[in-house]
Specification:
By secondary structure, the chain is an alpha+beta fold. The protein is about 20% helix and about 15% strand. The chain has a 5-stranded mixed β-sheet.
Length: about 300
């Protein structure tokens, strides 16, 4: 493109830059040569060239191409221009499934950075899969898989730090809860301690007939979770039955280690597998089977 709008290959003259703005950028202001000349002077690196007819060197032309003034993004969209006073249920909400995972849901790493990245990208609904952990505080990970575990308390601290960096509108924490009641109570205490006034714990309007609006919920964190049934017992574990596509490990009929023979070297190799009602999934190879391992059983399930 630079060669198209330069005669000597070294610089872009005022007239050549004006042609570029008219033909490529479709900029109506380029019809005014004085405006184009003034505009060019903002990118001149050498003040001595601030003449009647300025010109661009190659670096200066590139500076313009990658500048904010040449950004295709309409700056008016930096601000929310939609009506945000309607009930929350009237909106599409940018959501994330298995937010903690950095890869597949069978054997990838779990990371608190995944939460930070998701929130910074504008996500307003993120998921936490919680399971009983040590010291009476849960872990977040994909249960019954080879995914790594991260501490629940580290996750919610990260959420607090990044929740409203990109947007002031509410963040919804979708909890897939596999914890016992004692650890659920510890989770509740941690939510209150970490989030403080950010946590929505009371109705915005006591006698409201509809859900509050995003505008009413600015800078609020909302917990999405099933309530315990009346008359519950200590042994009850609340699970989120809404989660789960066909390939979700929580819907597996069976899972464990599957041994498959490598067609090239004919070694038996371990693969993590899961069996659903309709399909069987297995991960990429884990490790070759040692000679002294028992190869008669081709699965070892929990």
């Amino acid at each position: 493109m630079f060669e198209q709008y330069t005669t000597d290959g070294q610089r872009v003259t005022l007239q050549e830059f004006q042609n570029f703005l008219l033909e490529q950028q479709k900029d109506p202001d380029a019809l005014n040569e004085q405006k184009v000349s003034k505009f060019m002077r903002e990118y001149l690196q050498d003040p001595s060239r601030d003449a009647q007819e300025p010109f661009f060197t190659v670096p200066e032309f590139l500076d313009f191409l990658f500048s904010k003034q040449n950004d295709a993004w309409d700056s008016k969209h930096n601000e929310v221009i939609q009506d945000m006073t309607q009930p929350l249920v009237n909106y599409w909400i940018a959501s994330s499934h298995n937010t903690y995972l950095t890869g597949d849901q069978v054997k990838s790493e779990s990371s608190i950075e995944a939460y930070a990245r998701c929130l910074q990208m504008g996500c307003r609904c993120i998921e936490l899969d919680v399971w009983d952990g040590p010291d009476q505080m849960p872990y977040v990970y994909h249960g019954h898989t080879l995914t790594s575990k991260i501490k629940f308390i580290d996750v919610i601290r990260t959420i607090k730090e990044h929740a409203f960096v990109t947007s002031e509108y509410p963040v919804i924490l979708s909890i897939e809860n596999h914890c016992t009641l004692p650890q659920q109570r510890n989770m509740a205490s941690a939510f209150l301690e970490v989030f403080g006034d950010m946590l929505l714990t009371q109705p915005v309007e006591r006698d409201a007939a509809q859900m509050p609006s995003p505008a009413q919920l600015k800078y609020k964190i909302i917990i999405k979770h099933k309530k315990l049934p009346d008359g519950h017992e200590e042994r009850i574990v609340v699970r989120n039955d809404e989660a789960g596509a066909e390939s979700d490990i929580s819907n597996a009929v069976k899972n464990g280690i599957l041994y498959l023979e490598d067609p090239v070297d004919h070694e038996w190799r371990q693969h993590f597998f899961m069996l659903t009602q309709n399909k069987m999934y297995y991960a990429e190879e884990q490790q070759p089977l040692d000679d002294d391992d028992d190869t008669e059983d081709n699965t070892n399930t929990e």
